[in-house]
Amino acid sequence: MFELSTLHLSTFDISLLMACALIAGLVDSIMGGGGMIQVPALFALLPGFPPPTLLSVNKFASVIGTMGSAIQYTRANKSPWGLVIISCIIAFIASVSGAYLVTQIPTQWLRGTLPFLLIALLFFSIKSNAGLVHAPKYSPHRQKAIASTGAGVIGFYDGFLGPGAGAFYKLLYTRVLGFDFLRSAAPAKFLNIASNLGALCVFIYLGYFDLRLALLMAIANLIGGQIGSKIAIKHGNAFIRKAFFILVTVLIIKTFYDAFLK
């Protein structure tokens, strides 16, 4: 069942939610991590809503916004569709599993390890030129095996917990497979869509969804994603790389705070 709210919000609150969704879409299209803006805004302005409903609204808006920016990146650079499609299927299935499991067991132990994993990944990436040059490392068959394995792990994490999943997908393509940032953008976006859809299906099945609120957030997120992807395509790999490092640094700070100080 869909839970349809009456949306008893002031014009200011609705405008603020949509502004946050627009900014989230813009940020997410360039470097990922838009959920760090969108989720806190939803929880702050709608404290009476069930948390799973707010999370499902975030997932829906992100799917629509990310789809728009993924199409923009696909127009700019040809995507390896065989690689993308099989990885997306794996990411979707893994995310469904992760989203179901998160309703059954506590996640605090994972929250505590996440900031340290992100720190390791940040230094791992800074010490290389990953993402600046497009130099695929493996044959097509091996690419599919590696990409599918990575998509399964990250997709499960996205359904189970989620923060920074878009950054992990981008790392999979740049650092592991050898793609540059622009050519990894569309595959990473489609993987993020797949794992978001997997978790969203679980939330909807359990009855946690608000269609009207989700549509409002999705429209704003889509507009932001279109703006951000055009900026990224215009300024190229070096710009996206810097933005990516900023995102991971912010993720480290946020996940450390959530795990140990909140």
Q: What low-confidence regions span 5 or more consecutive residues with pLDDT below 50?
A: none
The structural domain count equals 1
Q: Report the order of strands and helices.
A: HHHHHHHHH
Give the radius of gyration. 17 Å
Strand content: under 5%
Number of strands: 0
| Mean pLDDT reading | 83
Instruction: List the quaternary state of the chains.
Output: single chain
**Largest sheet: number of strands, sense, barrel closure:** none
Helix count? 9
Helix content range? over 70%
Distance between the termini: 34 Å
Q: Which class do the helix and strand fractions yield?
A: mainly alpha
How would the global form be characterised? Answer: globular
Description:
By secondary structure, this protein is mainly alpha-helical. It has one domain (11-261). It contains nine helices and no strands. Helix 1 crosses helix 9 (211-261). The longest helix is centred in the C-terminal third of the chain and has 51 residues, at 211-261. The two termini are 34 Å apart. The model has no long low-confidence stretch (mean pLDDT 83). Keywords: Cell membrane, Membrane, Transmembrane, Transmembrane helix, Transport. The chain crosses the membrane at residues 6-27, 39-61, 81-102, 109-126, 146-169, 190-208, 239-257. Belongs to the 4-toluene sulfonate uptake permease (TSUP) (TC 2.A.102) family. It is a multi-pass membrane protein.
